[in-house]
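Lay summary. Proteins are chains of building blocks that fold into shapes, and those shapes determine what they do. In this project we predict the shape from the chain. Here is one chain we studied, written as its sequence of building blocks.
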Amino acid sequence: MGKPGLFDLENHFAFYGAYHSNPVNIFIHTLFVWPIFFSGLVLFYFTPTIYDLSQSGILPSGFNSVLVFNYGFVFALFYGLFYMILDKKAGSLAAVLCLACWFGASFLAAKLGYSLAWKVVLAAQLLCWTGQFVGHGVFEKRAPALLDNLVQAFVMAPFFVLLEVLQSLFRYEPYPGFHARVKAKIDAEIKEWQDKKQKKHS
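And here is the predicted shape, written in a compact code that computers can read:
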């Protein structure tokens, strides 16, 4: 069942889901959330090295100058471990995706170099964020979750998208009754938001 506080997936998912109930908006986020994560890691590649892997001898020589333990790795590791705590199965898949993004972003960043990489990242971030704001403004007709809880919105977004895909394609849920319970919470939160909105206009 659900875990308390910080690791309560049910409440995290319900919070995020209340801001993403429109199918078109969900689809837009499915397209753009992980590219935001990936392109962010491209920029993090240029942060200071925490540990030089070339001295460990555990990687082939061609990888030593590319795969470095920097803040990008810490960022991906934090996300992956947090998702694994939230849900062992889907979280493990998410952790693999996080590390795969770090791996791919490292190679792309090394190939582009900083002078070109930051321009690619800026273009990708602008495109993806614009798409998401359009999703909220045109289809969801509700401000993004990040305006109410910045940290929770940023941390949960990639996992929310993954769980949505797993549920849609494979009917996956972390435990029996998860989606029914979350849907009830989402419906209640949306109704509360609509009631508050109606009172403001009355």
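What the prediction tells us: The mean pLDDT is 88.
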